[in-house]
Input
Amino acid sequence: MTSLRSRRSLFAATLAAAALALSACGGGSTPAQSGGDTSLSDVKSKGELVIATEGTYRPFSFHAEGAGELTGYDVEIAKAVAEKLGVKASFQETQFDGIFAGLDAKRFDTIANQISINAERKAKYEFSKPYTVSTGVVVTKKDNSSINSFADLKGKTTAQSLTSNFYKMAVDAGANVQSVEGWAQAATLVRQGRVDATVNDKLTYLDYAKSTPDSGLKIAAETTDKTQSAMVFRKGSAELKAAVDKALTDLQADGTLAKISQKYFGADVTK
Output
């Protein structure tokens, strides 16, 4: 997955202390229609919570072995939430470009697909409490002692996708940027010592570090700004949102969220 896909756009202008940018995992959303609410009683009466997710967004929502069962971090959390509500989790795989339109059209009750919370979306939709928190990071070789902050990127060479807001962060820090297609290529160049570092999302690094424990890479610096992702509902779904919030609170308290997070990232990214 290139830069865990949409998360490349979550930290625009972080170094300048600007607000978090829209992630591609939520861009192009359409306004919610009036009267498009879903009540908890609706969900209970049909015995299922219908959840939109992409199904092609590893490690959040994907098919095991390419064609197996739908699984992933978001999928497991959504299943746990539905179980707390006493209903079945029913997933509708939807291309991201149409995921908000599908919610507006009442094709599903909620979205669980790493949708980041921001003011524009909050004006149109209801959000659950966050279940994912992440930051931007500078990744270097473990033996690199010259980069310990974003400021240390000045004059250094980083590998970045030119369409990514992490590219802007690197440039703003004074780095010389070498263009790459995505995270995999950037990580390879850092490992080979052909560039000094790469700037990306922490979840991208954690996913990579878990699957490639001998990579020889480390997080050298991290942003203070954070992005939060949550489940999304139509406006007017306050009752359902409240029930999902309680479920997430209970799952946090009993360790379920941390357990799912450790499974996919080797760290707790839920708070």
In short: Residues 6-36 have pLDDT under 50 and may be disordered. The CA atoms of residues 109 and 133 lie 23 Å apart.
